[in-house]
Amino acid sequence: MPQHAPRKIIHVDMDAFYASVEQRDDPALRGRPVVVAWRGTRSVVCAASYEARVFGVRSAMPAVRAERLCPEAVFVPPDFTRYRAVSRAVREIFLSHTDLVEPLSLDEAYLDVSENKQALASATEVAQRIRSQIREQLQLTASAGVAPNKFLAKIASDWNKPDGLFVIRPRDVLAFLAPLPVGRLPGVGKVMGERLAGLGIDTVGQLRAFSVLELETRFGRYGRRLAELAQGIDEHRVQADRPTQSVSAEDTFADDLPLSALAPHIERLAAKTWAASRRTERVPRTVVLKLKTRDFRILTRSLTPAQPPASEAELAAMAISLCARVEDEHEAGAPPTLYRLVGVGLANFHEADDPRLQPDLFAGLTA
């Protein structure tokens, strides 16, 4: 374990946030299965109340499937303006305890309370106070995890949901992690989980039996990260005011469209993405095109030009050019692949004075 004094990190996760706001603001919805989504074959679930989750309804699920799973569900169209306002109120509560707040989304954040503004005796007490304030001031509930680092705090916040608190003390870290499935570790998805299972590694304790060298040999740089996580080590700090890393806009069509019909939609989304990118002084290097086929396969293509796009029109042109790098996989004589969603993004942001963004003064000159 690290030799420095352990940090005191809290991860706060609002419970079924969008759905809970709707139930709070409309008493008729309380106790009922609420699905925050537009109705229709193209819609996906933004959030589901715990009453709906009992039926298997989950976020990002197609709305039509949610309706099949829970015919009694009440569908409520999302109101992101209202959710953002509530999120700001939650963040004000966080900031009354520490300036080191790292929002991850509207409904969750990391807080470093190694030192706290209220001079409370422990991080556990800070977490309890925050949850009480959210309940009393906003009539909502939140779950919290307290731990010596970020990845453990996030695991802990999910341990006693909803409306729960779980604490992982430094002395308990190794024992807590040992029986956990490796899938609970950051970065271990389905593919990595299968690769680890092939080595007989199903739990963190089993992973711990492999040396750093063995893991690096098999998994490269991520192998070292795996070894550290197995020991409960995570040196990532809570970053207040995280610099912009990416911005994007996407849209799901009313009807599936072929690749040849996407240009007007890409231009419209490029305008939204460009406007969002103007809110930061940092400069994006990479243009990203995202597509989702009618059978829900996701394709992404990216371009890092010598010079970043200098206008909305340039961004749109670059994004449209990426369509040429999407292979149409339909068989000869079969109809073309149809797409249900397109997205345009900017990524790989750097500071404006980064030398990588400066034009080559000698470009185009020959000896």
Summary of the model, kept short:
The protein has 367 residues and is of the alpha+beta class.
CATH superfamily of the largest domain: Reverse transcriptase/Diguanylate cyclase domain
Beta-strand residue fraction: 15-25%
Structural class: alpha+beta
Would you tell me which CATH topology of the largest domain applies?
Alpha-Beta Plaits
Oligomeric state: single chain
Provide the spatial order of strands within the biggest beta sheet. Answer: 5-6-1-7-8
CATH level-1 class of the largest domain: Alpha Beta
Low-confidence stretches: 356-367
Number of domains: 3
Biggest beta-sheet profile:
5 strands, mixed
CATH architecture descriptor name of the largest domain: 2-Layer Sandwich
CA-CA gap between termini: 57 Å
Number of helices: 13
Provide the succession of SSEs.
EHEEHHEHEEHEHEHHHHHEHEEHE
Gross morphology is globular
Average the pLDDT over all residues and give the rounded result.
Answer: 88
Give me the count of strands.
12
Instruction: Tell me the Rg in angstroms.
Output: 23 Å
Estimate percent helicity: 25-40%
Pfam families: IMS, IMS_C, IMS_HHH_1
Protein name: DNA polymerase IV
GO molecular function: damaged DNA binding; DNA-directed DNA polymerase activity; magnesium ion binding
Main location: cytoplasm
Protein model, in words:
By secondary structure, the protein is an alpha+beta fold. It folds into three domains: 1-169, Alpha-Beta Plaits (2-Layer Sandwich); 178-230, DNA polymerase, domain 1; 246-357, DNA polymerase, Y-family, little finger domain (Dna Ligase, domain 1, 2-Layer Sandwich), CATH 3.30.1490.100. 33% of the residues lie in helices and 21% in strands. The chain contains 13 helices and twelve strands. It has a five-stranded mixed beta sheet. The protein has a four-stranded antiparallel beta sheet with strand order 9-12-10-11, with helices on one face. A three-stranded mixed beta sheet has the order 3-2-4. Helix 4 (80-95) crosses helix 5, helix 10 packs across helix 11 and helix 12 (263-277) crosses helix 13. The longest helix is centred in the N-terminal third of the chain and has 16 residues, at 80-95. It starts with 8 loop residues before the first strand and ends in a 17-residue tail after the last strand.
